[in-house]
Amino acid sequence: MTDHPAALHLVLGEEELLIERAVSAVVAQARAVTADPDALPVDRLRAGDASSAELAELLSPSLFAEDRVIVLESAAEAGKDAVALITAAAGDLPDGVVLVVLHSGGGRAKALAPALQKAGAQVHNCAKVTKAGERNEFVRNEFRSAGVRVSADVVQAVLEAIGSDLRELAAACSQLAADTGGRVDMAAVRRYYSGRAEVTGFEVADLAVGGDRPAAMEALRWATDRGVPAVLLADALADSVHTIARVGSAGRGDPFALASKLGMPPWKVKKAQAQARGWNPGTIGSALQVVAALNADVKGQAADTDYALERALSTILDLHGAS
Predict the structure, then answer these.
(1) How far apart are CA 54 and CA 45, in angstroms?
(2) Domain CATH code at residue 115
(3) What DSSP character marks residue 304?
C-alpha cells in the first residue's frame, strides 16, 4: 500500500532535472493515494509573481476539503508578504493539501528555506551537480535505478562521451540500459557514442590482459580507426604485461606495502593483483615475449603494424587463463 505523501515539501537547489523529478515524485505519490488520480488538482505558480490574495486563496482550507497539490516555484524571489503567508500556511496546512515549495537556497527570500525546514518540511536536495565525483555518482545511480550494474570504466566512458549535462547523461543511461538488455559494457558505450567516446591504449591493454576478447578486439579496431598511434598501443600493452609480471612475482601482500617496494602507485598494484588471477608464471612469460616482439614490429620491423597489433592482442587473449 502506498504511503500518503508528507504535507510539506521543500525542493532545495537549482538543478532543473532533479527539481522536475522531485516534483513529479511528490505528485505521483499524491495521485497514488487518491480515489481519482486523474482528477487531482495540481496548481503551479511562481511565488515571486503571485499576489498575496492569490496565495491566500490557494493556501486556505477549501469549502469542499478537496485533495490538491500546490507547487510554488521561484520561492526565493517571493516578497515579504508572500513569505509570511507561505510560512504561516506551512505550519497548518489543510487536510488533503500537499504543498511543494521550490527554493534555490538564496535570493531575497533566503530565510524562507530554513523556516520551512523548521516547520517540518521534507527536503529534496537538488543542488547543482558540479563536481566530477557527483556526476560519477549520478551516472551510477541512473544505471542502478534501471536495474543495471556497471563498472567504473563504463561510468567514466559515459561521462567522457556525453559531458556534464544531466539530462543528456540520464537519457544516455536510459538508452544504454534499454537497448542492451541491461548488459552495458565498454563496447556498448563505443557503439552508441562512436563520435564522442575516445579509446586509449591502456583501455585496450586492460581488456586484453583481463581476457575480454570481444571488447578488446573491438577496442583495438576502434583505436586504430581513429588514429591512435601503434607505438602507444604497443607500449600500453607492454606496460600492463610487465606490471602483472612484477606484481605477480612479488607475491600476495598489502598493495600499499608492495607499492613502496616496487615503486608503483598503490592503485596500480591493486589493479595488477586483480588482473594477475588469470595468469601463471608460464603464460606471463610467454606474454612478455609477445609484447617484446610487438615492440620491434611497431618500430619498423613489421610491414603492417595494424596486423601486428591484432595478432599480438589475439595471442595475449589466448594466453589469458591458459594452463
Answers:
(1) 10
(2) 3.40.50.300
(3) -
**What's the mean pLDDT in 81-86?**
90
Question: What CATH number should be reported for the domain holding residue 179?
Answer: 1.10.8
What is d(CA 124, CA 75) in angstroms, rounded to the nearest whole number? Answer: 15
DSSP string over 69-101: EEEEE-GGG--HHHHHHHHHHHTSPPTTEEEEE
Among 189-198, 234-243, 267-276, the range scoring the smallest mean pLDDT is 189-198
Q: Is the pLDDT of residue 64 over 60?
A: no
Range from 161-175, 245-259, 309-323 that averages highest in pLDDT? 309-323
> What's the confidence (pLDDT) of residue 9?
97
> How far out from the chain centre does Cα 73 lie?
28
Shared domain for 229 and 286, answered yes or no, is yes
Which of 76, 82, 28 shows the shortest CA–CA distance to 59? 82
Domain assignment of residue 22, yes or no: yes
For 102, the 3-state DSSP assignment is: strand
Rounded to whole angstroms, how far apart are CA atoms 119 and 113? 10
Look-up of cell digits 600492463: 240
Phi and psi at 65, nearest 5°, equal 50, 40
CB burial of 194-217 (b: ≥16 within 10 Å; e: otherwise) equals eeebebebebbbbbbbbbbbebbb
